[in-house]
Specification:
heterodimer, A: mainly beta, 7-stranded mixed beta sheet, 4-stranded antiparallel beta sheet, globular, B: mainly beta, 55% strand
Chain lengths: 117, 115
């Protein structure tokens, strides 16, 4: 149980284009989803927290107009990287917290590797 | 604010020998502490979690960690390394008193296991 999927697992795009990454909780309802970014050989940095049906809360330094997050249902959140540039190349990981789970419970997706040319 | 420091960026052990991955934490309140493992191209998997019930926490795959408040440490150990243990390990802290309880990750320790 408690499986989180991400799609696509990897994507290559041209500079200036937008890319959408999906995060799905497959066997539970996720009231809260989190988006992280991981640079090579570095830790996970929280980008934003989204609660179903409300606007995402972005961490300091994360541009909300560049990284659009939508959490339209209890099983799906999307991250759209708008007008991507090479510096946006990174590994993006989502996690989901089930309804009624302790506040520090998160199940992680396998990640999406974005390469912007 | 909470933080974790993983003292080694890379640890290399021989198969069958003990594993020790070190982690120190800083937290204003009663912390929850975790160890996660990340295998290449796979999601993070929870190894174990400390929530003040017991200072010695047993996790999956033979791993365990001991919470030592006096040393602000939460080191991860395993008696005998297996080749499949080679991965990236993250020590994580959360603050039980924080409303949204964000997880704060250490920088990770890459474990290599030599045959």
């Amino acid at each position: 149980g408690a499986v989180v999927s991400q799609h696509p697992s990897w994507v290559i795009c041209k500079s200036g284009t937008s890319v959408k990454i999906e995060c799905r909780s497959l066997d539970f309802q996720a009231t809260t989803m989190f988006w992280y970014r991981q640079f090579p050989k570095q830790s996970l940095m929280l980008m934003a927290t989204s609660n179903e049906g409300s606007k995402a809360t972005y961490e300091q330094g994360v541009e909300k107009d560049k990284f659009l997050i939508n959490h339209a249902s209890l099983t799906l959140s999307t991250l759209t990287v708008t007008s991507a540039h090479p510096e946006d190349s990174s590994f993006y990981i989502c996690s989901a917290r089930p309804r009624d789970a302790p506040g520090d419970t998160q199940y992680f997706g396998p990640g999406t590797r974005l390469t912007v040319l | 604010a909470q933080s974790v420091t993983q003292l080694d960026s890379h640890v290399s052990v021989s198969e069958g020998t003990p594993v020790l991955l070190r982690c120190n934490y800083s937290s204003s309140y009663s912390p929850s502490l975790f160890w996660y493992v990340q295998h290449p191209n796979k999601g993070l998997q929870l190894l174990l979690k400390y929530t003040s019930a017991a200072t010695l926490v047993k996790g999956i795959n033979g791993f365990e960690a001991e919470f030592k408040k006096s040393e602000t440490s939460f080191h991860l150990t395993k008696p005998s390394a297996h080749m499949s243990d080679a991965a990236e390990y993250f020590c994580v802290v959360s603050d039980l008193n924080s409303g949204n309880t964000p997880l704060v990750f250490g920088k990770g320790t890459r474990l290599s296991v030599i045959a």
